[in-house]
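[Structure tokenization] protein backbone as discrete codes
[Encoding] learned vocabulary of local backbone shapes
[Protein] chain in single-letter code, fold in tokens
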Amino acid sequence: MKWGVISTANIGTAKVIPAMQQSDKLEIRAIAGRDLEKTREVAENLRIPRAYGSYEELLADPSIEAVYNPLPNHLHVEWTIKALEAGKHVLCEKPIGLNTEDAERLIEARTKSGKQVLEAFMVRHHPQWQHARELVSSGQIGELTTIQSIFTYHNTNPADVRNKKDIGGGGLLDIGCYCVIGPRYITGRDPVRVVSLMDKDPKFGTDRLVSGLLDFGSGVQASFVCGTQSAAVQRVHILGTEGRIEIVMPYNPVPENPAVIRVGTQKQPSFDEAREISFPVCNQYTLQGENATAIFNGSIEVDYPIEDAINNMKILDSLARSARTGSWEMVDHK
């Protein structure tokens, strides 16, 4: 399948495109940007055959079958719809939109186009997350009780899109979405209500620290902290009545090294005594690209349709609303 990329954004050029190029199941045929000279330079460095000076030109290329959209958050829905209207399948970066209302526009666009649109949560394709879910579903840690996630980095660059409020910047949409998708993936369920606490940068107006609690019902909880101006760390703990799982590098495992999770029992208070499970070297962005390609060419069924992305957006909206109201907020999954 021949892919095109709209935008020369760093997430694409530094991580996703090189990873997808490792696969023999797809081809990155073209890339588009607003600055043709810069785009040509990027294309040359990444050995991409075609460079376009506008997104419209790429979408008009009849050889392109699928599009990867890593544009800033406020452009996700707009250009995903344009790609669908041009007859292309779309893999769109997370979050799928700025809010639920924005994201729901994609349902009609998908239906009219007859093409598929997927949200790019690469973690769901990494073996470490898949195995952690299997351990939980098979009862190896007893009854699931809670999932704790932390994901932070430090970035105070005013020119960075993640620090621009008017185009969807802030920690909740950028990395808090991982702290929501992870528990949803492990449990196979959606929370019924959420509560959060949010601290905003006085100059940027973006959320720089968010703590959240998700109530999945039946006693299962998930909690998280995400931040954009804290020391960088990421970790996930999954606790059950009889044991626990630690995902050491849950979101950005180094693709050149084996990923590791630790599994401990109720009687092992320290993870030093836990069983360590390592996974063969892989790149989750490569696996994501191959999965999307297989869905787009009809080889496999859609695993996470756009409706799932909208459900994730509803939870993020509810967390943002809770930060404003200071109370628990119900999540409407109708």
